[in-house]
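Thread: "does anyone have the structure for this chain?"

Original post by V.I.:
We have the sequence but no experimental structure in hand. Need at least a predicted one for the grant figures.
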Amino acid sequence: MYLIFFGVGVGFILLSLVMGEFMESEGSAFSFLKPTLIAVFLTIVGGLGLLLEPRFYGVLGDGVVLAISLSGGFVAAMAINIFIIKPLYKAQNTSTFSKEETIGVIARVISPIPRRGYGKISYSISGSTVTSPAKSEDEDEIRNGETVEIVDIEGGTYFVRRT
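Reply from O.Q.:
Generated one for you, tokens below.
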């Protein structure tokens, strides 16, 4: 039985590595039922059972070995969830942003925007400094170092106006 738990757990780990993006879901009511955590739980239950059963056969009952294995699997899965998975999701979510979130952000021109031409702006969002191609909203020239506001985005070009 423990060999099956161990094998299924390892299989789940391999499957999670291959299809992790499709299988993981953060924020749902059952976020503790992530495939990675299930894989850890099953692998630890199987591994502890395989280690404990032959050593304590006859000393501890099968129920005690199963209880220790289940408890170990639960503790390991929860520890990985609390100390590894949740902090990684939090870090990932704080450093990502959509282009639409940049509308209204104040930026600085780092490469002059000529009349009816393109230049480059730099702005900070979610703790990251980003540079992007920019064009003046009213097609006027904007000099290097001027402060602008991002008003629109089209095809990767940021349309800006002086502040």
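V.I.: this helps a lot. The chain has two domains: 2-95, 99-162.
O.Q.: and The domain at 99-162 is CATH 2.40.50.140 (OB fold (Dihydrolipoamide Acetyltransferase, E2P)).
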